[in-house]
């Protein structure tokens, strides 16, 4: 099972590599970085909003504390020490709340500054990645185009390979048809096949066959004369020279058939 799983994973990985386009992968990675940057910016905005809300609360408590202080002064001026004490007690409670809010405000401000710095760094990285992405995409596109051109020139691309196979099949079929046509012509010339077009008759076919035999006999006589095995028969040589010419009109068809036999 472990081996089968490894084979399946390797096949799947190979299929994915074949389907993967680096340009699409780079665009997708850039899109994810933009989404992350957008989230960081929203985080900065949320922290800034919370900090501003705390500032407003602190300002409101400060105004209320000053009002309690004025109320305490007025109560003392009219001889109401109890009211002055109550006003000062409420102001003290507000000051405690303001101290807690100021601590929270300082924490939010520090977090805001940290997120702002991270957002700026991330923005710089995204910008650098975008530049590098476009450079890689342009380089990949140029390399892909060059590879296709080279494959087209060398004939190893899939499209050109199909064209080459088609041409090869056409040439093979053409050669086969030419060979078949030549064989049929030879069979018709030898009389093995009947020519139904009417362009040849049996008498002419017999004359052509006997003329070919006379050429062989003439060549044999010449070779014997060259080897000293005997003089070449003059009648055979003369008949061989006159055989390709048209026969005289006064000779009958019977004489035309017998003359080559007599030469043999």
From TrEMBL:
Compositionally biased spans, kind Low complexity: 239-264
Spans annotated as Disordered: 221-264
Record keywords, A-Z: Coiled coil
Coiled coil: 51-125
Assigned protein family: Belongs to the PspA/Vipp/IM30 family.
PANTHER family: MEMBRANE-ASSOCIATED PROTEIN VIPP1, CHLOROPLASTIC (PTHR31088), PHAGE SHOCK PROTEIN A (PTHR31088:SF6)
Listed name of the protein: Phage shock protein A (PspA) family protein
